[in-house]
Write a structure and sequence with these properties.
58 residues; mainly alpha; 2 helices
C-alpha cells in the first residue's frame, strides 16, 4: 500500500508553511535537472503565492 495521502489544502499560516516546504522541495528536485529548469526559492514562493488562494490567484 502507498504512503500517499490526499488531504484538503489548509488556509492561513498552515498554508504558508506548506507552501514554503513545497517551494523548497521543487528547487531541490529540479536542481537535479538544470537543463529543464533552474529556479530559485524566491521564484517558487512567488509562483505558489500567485497560484494559491492566499495570493488571490488560481
Amino acid at each position: 500500500m502507498s504512503d500517499l495521502r490526499v488531504v484538503p489544502y489548509p488556509g492561513g499560516a498552515t498554508m504558508r508553511q506548506e507552501r514554503d516546504a513545497l517551494a523548497k522541495l521543487r528547487v531541490e528536485v529540479f536542481r537535479a535537472f538544470p537543463y529543464l529548469y533552474s529556479g530559485s526559492l524566491d521564484y517558487e514562493l512567488e509562483n505558489l503565492e500567485v497560484s494559491s488562494p492566499i495570493g488571490g490567484g488560481g
